[in-house]
């Protein structure tokens, strides 16, 4: 019998990471799976049903001693561990420590212990910065993170480390991943006219899993990963449909609640290249919204509908662009808004 391929998955308790784990586990006869994650009640709960058939290693990605417990001879590494917004914005030092330093320390450990490993990295559309005026994005476009986007900077630095390492590698720059999101103040940072291409966690995970058997085609290359033409919409319309599903009514916030610039997202003009290799796309915007509907009970939707006004009032109070506008804070107004013409 052919030996199982040794797979290391970091960040397996995250939204995408857990989907990757589930898909790998369906082929457990092919893969010897090791997950590396921070020990928490969330990760222990998620891994509990797998604990007898996968290798679970708990630790911090930036701790060399923890990384040395992963073991030698890993053949495939799917690196998803990261601090993402809004926490990345609130704790930029932690974001840098995990996203950049952690990636470098993981690579250095692998170069010693698993030098033949194929390193598959999850980067972000945020590295392209504000694309309101030119929303069609190609993977060879200049990287220009939006002003103050520390998360994007950590991803760019990690990409540079990967491209100069001794391992074989590929980088996927993920579009807006929708599914399992919680509403937060970050929703107001994105301009309503943003061109938005989404991908679901399931489709995204499928790309990472399918990449295992396509090393030669992916080797030393960077790809944009998005849902394609059937997953494109404006941010305003996306919010409108989402609010309708949740029973929140119209997106009728104060006009200055949403930023007018300095975010990211767009349409991946070359996104079909990766899909033609990995054939990971199954979902569309329509079935995304259908799935969101099915997650909600009639009772919950009715409850939200009854209290939609105080809920939206609470949300609006979280809007940092609106706070800057009300305070006439010139620094932050310049950051969020276009100058009056």
Automatic annotation (TrEMBL):
Keyword Membrane: no
Protein name as it appears in the record: Nucleoside-diphosphate-sugar epimerase
Domain of life: Bacteria
Family of this protein: Belongs to the NAD(P)-dependent epimerase/dehydratase family.
Domain 3-beta hydroxysteroid dehydrogenase/isomerase: 9-163
Keywords in alphabetical order: NAD, Oxidoreductase
